[in-house]
């Protein structure tokens, strides 16, 4: 299995896991738990693909990921309990940051393929990274967390996306631009999380 | 008028009616009542078609159904009162179950036409059957009922959709597969409703 | 700069401004303020284009408008304060009415280009005019204002859209139909606002 596949699966599972937690907090049944986890995991990329008019969607091509979330949702209660015992909050934040870095930059790349202009492409990357969580919170009848906690989550993605765009415009190889920008997002996110940095309202 | 057209109209009216009730409960005006009824009736199929990138949408082809809801919304208050007097809750549940059966299996069929893989096709059927109600509840600022009441509504659709897929894969004629699966969903839904069966959280 | 460009920019700014206010009221951070303003300004046209399957989206073609909202969101607090001092509520209502007139009729025209039937085209115009505000309110976890205040906002757009359709069907030139219908919407909206007219629930 390629490294990128492993990262992808872990990042999707972290997204789904955030949906499990939120759906349980709202006392949802198994249908709600699965749907909210699915939206949290795939919502951002799906919205990006609808805006770009790209098909087939990621979770149609990789149906195995959707099935994995389906199976986990059937046993969400023990899954949540087990994960909370064996995985620290720190590990979840790290896995989530890796997912944010990877999916944001991949979103920008996908928007460039669809001939989007630069600012739009940078936004498509942010949408990919954050709108899963936004839709999860809307379905759970909450004001989206990423819009109100003041933590530079979307901002990390936005800056890293521009690093990717600028490296590409200045002739750096695509792979180098992608990996260094994704790494930048991960590190920036973890540093601001570590020091509990907030943006002013 | 074909039987299927009659069933279609009744099922759409039941969806719209659920929107009338919910919008009124939230003290919406006529614009809200119409919009929520429209979303409740057509939202699931519209989301499916957007995900599958199919056009024209159902309510564009059958504009007469949209106009019917528009006219009913103008007189929603007497419509609700009259329906409540002449139609029992039992009849509404039956009509809704028939709609769930018909639209879910039709949604799977539509996804197969668009070359979706099996699990995705089964999900597209469930989305067709339940997301009208999900969007209705989101617009009305509620946690979607279908995600929290523990009643096997989406589950009936899911199992019936797989019955349709398995019958088709095993060489049964399309029409037999469609009607028997839709019937299965209707019966399963009504039996679980009758005995107030709940899935564990 | 053409008159229509000036009107367009002002109408978009009024939409974004309504997002600034609502996001601030919900104590959102800068990411939320930008996103809600963006959705309020472009959400209606984006939904219409997704339903019609039209690309590229308005805010991709006119990326400069998205960047303008981005820059304003960074300084939203002084922008709101300044605007509240120099611009009266009356002026904001007028600018918003002009935007409603322009974008509604433009939405109908866009739907006709996509070969939509008449009722659907009139609805697409209303969606263009009101769904930015609807989505803004949903993200802010409120029942959409336009569905519950009883003010004939969507109704003005709906009637003006039919005026546009009827003028076109009766052979009037496209430009005359467009401008007279947009003007009708603006005047009707301002008159009903002035006299605080409400539709019955």
Automatic annotation (TrEMBL), chains A, B, C:
Taxonomic classification: Bacteria, Pseudomonadati, Pseudomonadota, Betaproteobacteria, Burkholderiales
Location of the protein in the cell: Cell membrane
Sequence intervals crossing the membrane: 6-23, 30-51, 57-79, 91-112, 118-139, 151-170, 176-195
Domain named Glycine transporter: residues: 6-76, 94-167
Primary localisation category: membrane
Entry superkingdom: Bacteria
Keywords, ordered alphabetically: Cell membrane, Membrane, Transmembrane, Transmembrane helix
Record bears the keyword Cell inner membrane: no
A Pfam family the protein falls into: Gly_transporter
Protein name: Trimeric intracellular cation channel family protein
Matching PANTHER family: INNER MEMBRANE PROTEIN, UPF0126 INNER MEMBRANE PROTEIN YADS-RELATED
Membrane topology type: Multi-pass membrane protein
């Amino acid at each position: 299995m390629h490294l990128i596949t492993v990262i992808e699966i872990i990042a999707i599972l972290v997204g789904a896991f955030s949906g499990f937690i939120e759906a349980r907090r709202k006392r949802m049944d198994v249908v709600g738990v699965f749907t909210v986890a699915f939206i949290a995991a795939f919502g951002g990329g799906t919205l990006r693909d609808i805006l770009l008019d790209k098909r087939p969607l990621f979770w149609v091509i990789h149906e195995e990921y959707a099935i994995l979330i389906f199976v986990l949702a059937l046993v969400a209660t023990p899954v949540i309990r087990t994960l909370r015992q064996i995985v620290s909050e720190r590990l979840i934040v790290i896995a989530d940051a890796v997912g944010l870095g990877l999916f944001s930059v991949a979103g920008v790349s996908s928007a460039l393929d669809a001939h989007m202009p630069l600012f739009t492409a940078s936004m498509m990357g942010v949408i990919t990274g954050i709108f899963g969580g936004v839709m999860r919170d809307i379905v759970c009848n909450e004001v989206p967390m990423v819009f109100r906690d003041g933590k530079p989550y979307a901002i990390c993605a936005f800056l890293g996306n521009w690093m990717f765009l600028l490296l590409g415009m200045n002739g750096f190889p695509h792979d180098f631009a992608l990996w260094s920008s994704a790494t930048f997002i991960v590190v920036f996110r973890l540093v601001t999380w570590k020091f509990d940095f907030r943006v002013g309202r």
